Amino acid sequence: MVAQGVTIAIARGSSTSCPVVALREWLDAAGIEAGPVFRPVNKAGTVSVGRLTDRSVANIVKVYAGAAGLDEKQFSGHSLRRGFLASSAAAGKSIFRIRDVSRHKSIATMSGYVQEAELFKDHAGAGLL
């Protein structure tokens, strides 16, 4: 069975942090015209034809978390997805639109992350103490 791609919308960002621009620059720099988008790059700067593994993504996240002064043991590849869900929910985005990006099959599974992000939003005890 050959995996098939899926078309999703990617929101444009500011001129300094636009994912659409960053993706286009990566594809051009790596010479990628087909196949996996996210690929390993060796120490010589050569881009592989294969895809990044889940372990590679986790290692990259850990390295950058550590470089930011965070405890890298607390982070994984899943942290990216979880952070997106929490940030989107905190910004008041629709759970249905969030799911369009996260690709969760179940709203119930996704809602756990959203509820966690909203624990203190409009808290019933706010202003009582």
Keyword list:
single chain; 129 residues; mainly alpha; 5 helices; 0% strand; globular
Outline of this structure?
With 129 residues, this protein is an all-alpha fold. The chain has helices at 19-30, 54-67, 78-90, 95-102, 107-117.
Task: Provide a descriptive summary of the structure in words.
- The protein is mostly helical and 129 residues long.
- Helices cover 45% and strands 0% of the residues.
- The protein has five helices and no strands.
- Helix 3 crosses helix 5.
- The protein starts with 18 loop residues before the first helix and ends in a 12-residue tail after the last helix.
C-alpha-based Rg, rounded:
18 Å
Query: Strand content of the residues, in percent?
Result: under 5%
> What can be said about the biggest beta sheet?
none
DSSP helix fraction:
40-55%
Strands, count: 0
- The tally of helices reads 5
List the secondary-structure elements in sequence, H or E.
HHHHH
Main structural class: mainly alpha
Characterize the overall form.
globular
Uncertain parts: none
Termini Cα gap: 59 Å
Mean pLDDT: 87
Task: Provide the fold topology.
Layout: H1 19-30, H2 54-67, H3 78-90, H4 95-102, H5 107-117
Helix pairs in contact: 3-5
